[in-house]
Every structure is written in C-alpha cells, then in structure tokens.
User: Fold these one by one.
Assistant:
Number 1:
Amino acid sequence: MTPEKAFAAIIADLKEQLKTELREELRAEMHVSPDRTLSFAEACKYLHMSEYTLRRLCREKRIPHRTYGADGSKNPRYLFSTASLDRWIREEEERNYRSGS
C-alpha cells in the first residue's frame, strides 16, 4: 500500500470515529435516546398512562403503534416506537397549547 493510500485510510477511519463520537455527544446533550421498540406494558410506563387509556387510544388510532398478531384478534398485541411516541407527545403538547389560545 502506498503512503498516500495508507494516509487516506487513516483519515477515513478518523472521520468515521469522529462522526460516531459527535452523534453520541449530540444525543446526550439533546437527551435523545436511540429508537427502541416497547411492549404495551413498557409503553404505559414510558407514557405514565394507565393500560385502559393506552388501549383506548390504540383502538381509536390516536397514538402511533403497530399491532402484532392475527388481524381481527380480540386481544391484539401492541408495539410502540420510542421515537414515534416522543414525536406524538410533542405534537399533543403543541396542539393543546394552540387550542388553549
């Protein structure tokens, strides 16, 4: 390998390491965690919401979620994305603020 190619490879590695470190620092400063998938019980805790309320919001399709299991099941399993829930919370807060004006 020529010295130029070796130098270019080192620079590329350093850039990638720096990108990763900066991304993690930004997440920490912005208090943003990587997206995770939550079960129904985990989503209740995450949202500080009762099971009854969360299940009603899911049935009414007023909160972002996906169902797991057979279509038309009487007892569907709900899964939630933390990123989608965070976005939903912000939108609800904005909507409530606008409607109160």
Note: Residues 16 and 22 are 10 Å apart (CA to CA).
Number 2:
Amino acid sequence: MTWRAKGLLVGVALLLPGCGNGLAGTYEDSMGLTQLRFERGGVVVQSSDLGGVERQMRYEVDGDRIRIRHPDVEGAALVLTRVDDKTLSGPMGVTFRHVSD
C-alpha cells in the first residue's frame, strides 16, 4: 500500500466519527421556550430559559426518528422526526430548528 493510500485511509477513519448520525448542536422550539442540545455519545440536554431548568437525557437515532428517553420514568420517551438537516418535528406540531453547533 502506498503512502498516499495509507494517508487517505487515515483521513477517512478520522472523519467517520464526526459523521455519525448528523445530529449535533442546539435545536430550539418555534417560541424559543425550549432548547435541545445534542452532544456526542447519545446525550441530549433539554433546557428552558423560562424556568431555568436543565435536564440531561439519553437519545437514540433510528433512521429519521430520534427517541429521547426520560431518565426518571421507565419506558417514557419523546419521539422526534428529522424533517431535514435543520428541522425536527415533535408531537402536536412542535417544531425544533437548528440554532447553533
């Protein structure tokens, strides 16, 4: 294997973890009341400026579905649908837009 080919393989290997599921950054609801900050390792932090509350939860991605698991209630989850790269849709018409990385 040539040095060039080895360099290409190393470059691709370094980029793959960053690709993941493409879900990263902060999303905010249309009224600006709730933010969801998706982090690496399946962690999402939900916060609200209104109540000053912040809650860390776990999330899983399955295709275009994002399941956010409630840490205190077994089996409870919020399911969001990825509409496009910048938009998530939730229950009852709630929409979250990507606002920062």
Note: The chain has one domain: 22-100.
Number 3:
Amino acid sequence: MPRGDSTSKVSRWDGHGREHVVRMRRTGVLRTIGCDTCGWTRNARFLPWLKAEEHLTAAHQATVDPARTRHPSR
C-alpha cells in the first residue's frame, strides 16, 4: 500500500521575538528536514523533531516554544 507525503514543522522563538521554523517532510520512509530561516537541510532517519530542535537551539538560539507560552490573565 503506497504511503502519501506528509509535512510538519517545529517552530521556536529567539530572544528577540523572531520565529524560526524547521519543516519536516516525509515521503515514504525518507524524512527530510529544512530550516526556513537559513536554508539548512538534512536527511533524518530517526527523531526528526529532535534534530530540528537541536538546530534551532544551536544555530538561532531559538528556545521558546510558542505552543507552551501562555500569557497570564490580568
């Protein structure tokens, strides 16, 4: 049974409030990750989201997860 393509992304903010995104594309068993900010790409056989997070931290100092950021009520 053929598998379709799928994509997902990991996004983080840096200390200046800029968003950095690494997109993950899966075609069959091949997973490719690429950074929208700097153009970095890599094949990732295992744990592509972990490699994406590592790149965002090392290359862009982007560590703030927008999905986990909550604004306190006033």
Note: The first strand starts at residue 6 and ends at 13.
Number 4:
Amino acid sequence: MGVAGKHYPHHVKPQDTAEAAEKEKPSDERVRRESWFGHLLNRPEFAAISGTVLVFAVFGFGAGSSGMFNLDGVMNWSQVAAYLGLLAVGACLLMIAGEFDLSIGSMIGFAGMMVALPATYFHWPIWLAIIFAFAASMLLGALNGYLVMRTRLPSFIVTLAFLFILRGLTLALSIMFADRTIISGVGDLAQNDWITNLLFHGVALHGFFTWLAHMGVGTLLDNGQPLVPGIPKVILWWFALAAVSAFILAKTRYGNWILAVGGDANAAKNVGVPVKRVKISLFVLTAFCACLFAVLQVCDIGSAAADRGLQKEFEAIIAAVIGGTLLTGGYGSVIGACFGALIFGVVQIGITYTNVSSDWFRVFLGVMLLFAVLFNHYVRRRVSQAQ
C-alpha cells in the first residue's frame, strides 16, 4: 500500500522515494557556486594586496641588503605611507559614495597655517589653535559638500575651485600676518603642551624601543639613545582611523548607506537613505583627514608652510584606486586604500635604497594606477555578468 493513492514496492520506504525525488530536482540556476579564488578575485582589495606582495618582493631582492628593512628603514617608509594613508581613508569613502575632493592638498596647507598663525602671532595655546584648525577645516568641508548637493554640479568642479581658493587664501594670510610663507616655532610649542605632545607630537613607546636597542634589536647611539626612538604618532593615527572606517563601512548601516549612495543615488533616496547628509558628512571627513595630516606634520616638522600638500589630492586618489575603489563609486575598500598607501610609501622611500634614479618614481606610480584601473574594470565586469 502507498500513501494518498500512491503505491510503493514493499522494499522501498516513502521517505527514500522523497529523497530520490529531491535529488532529481533541477538545481536553481540563480544559485552559482564560486571557487575560493574567484571569490578572492572579486574582493576590492585583492589587487592592492597582490601589488604590495610584488613590491615587497622586488625591493626585498633589489634593496634587501641596503638597510631598507632594518628597523629605521621600516619606520621611514611606514611614516610616509601613514601620512598618505590618512588622506586615502577619507578619499576612499568619498569616492565609494561617488564624489571627489580635489581640495585635500590645499586644505593641508590651510589647516597648517591655521595652527601656526594663532599659536605664534596671536599667542593662543597650541591646543586651542589645533581645535580652531579642525573646526575651520571641517566647516569648509561641509561647505564643499553643501555646494555640491545644492547646485548639483560635479564635485570635481566645486572642489577644484576650492583648491585654488584655499591655496590663495593660505598664501595671502601668511604674507599678511607673518610677511613670509613659512612659519616656524610650532614644534617647541607642541612639545611644551602636554595634550598636544601626547596626541600629535613625537613618538610613542619610547621606553620600549630603548629597551629593544639595549637588547640588540635596532641601533644604539653613542649617547645611549636608540636610533629609532619609537613609533611615530602618525602611524598610530593611521591604524586607528583605518580600523574605525573599515568597521563602519563593513558592519554598520551608515556603511551600507555609503555603498548604496555610490551605487545609485536615486534608488538609495527612494528607499529612505539620506543621500545629501551622507555625502556632506563624507566631505567633512575628508577635511578632517587633511587637517589631521597638517596638525601631525606641523607638530613633527615644527613649522607650517603655505605650499604644503601640493598634489596630495591626486596621491590620495591614486592610493584609493590602487586599493580597488572604483572611480564611478559604489565599490571599494578602506583596507585596500591603506595597502595602496603602503605601496606608495614603500616605493617612494625604497627607490632611494636602490641604484635606480628617483625620477622613475612617478613613472612607477602611473603604471601602478593604470594597472589598478584596468584590473578594477575587469572585476566590475565580472560582477556585472554574475548579476
């Protein structure tokens, strides 16, 4: 006897037949199995990580015995990468949202001058001058974003205008108040202020690095101090900013909003995403990153200059693109942008450890950018076809 009018052989149970029927069902063509390599290839940071491995292999072979990978050499190229990494994080998130900020470089010079002028010529406390610089920079970032949203002009045009406005304003203010374009004396003020010294000046873990040098790890100078006194504060800021930004992009609703706005702003608006608020906040973030760059640089070098930050906006965009961020928005990775900045730092400093002329540095950057754009185009076409 069977069930519900169906008859089965005596040696076959109904559940066995059901399992066999389930196996005979055609597979859902919408469900596609993907190899681990294919999944890895579709990750936005894959190209940057691969490029980083390649760059380390090249310099490990060409400059491995020159001291590039000694502790002092590692700190040199890590510091260069960290400065650019601060900018790359902000530029990456803004580009994922489908916008550009070409005023980042000019903002660095402007913010540095906003720290130096009040502190040295108006005798403000250095911590108050730093707060003033952050406030002014972020307000200008908000103005950038507001104008882009209000006028619906391409952000490329609006921020290009601010590139010239801020650079000219920095030069004019420095000449007006100081009668020169370089203002020094900020380093001593930063060192003597405990808040600024703790957050922005000098290095961290000095005692630990001194102990390492006495243990034979690193070089000990004749005065008993280590050649590498500690980890530059900019590296710690870079790690902290990258970690927070990567978490926000990958794990929070705001991160989903950023991706949605860059993918299709109209569709995102129709489902309730506050498109204008998201984009303006990201312009504020890029201004914050530029000001943080300026404050750390001014406290480290001890001076502010009106021409600081030249072409840094393009270097930040290059790092983000090498890291897998699409120029059209909607796709990218903060981690990838950080690897892009690392490639930049390793090449810029590493080339001085080799016999290769430093004139080839820009050529290498251009080639890396071209390969990154081609690879990102290939990945995007794969993703589109899969959908």
Note: Confidence is low (pLDDT under 50) at residues 1-6.
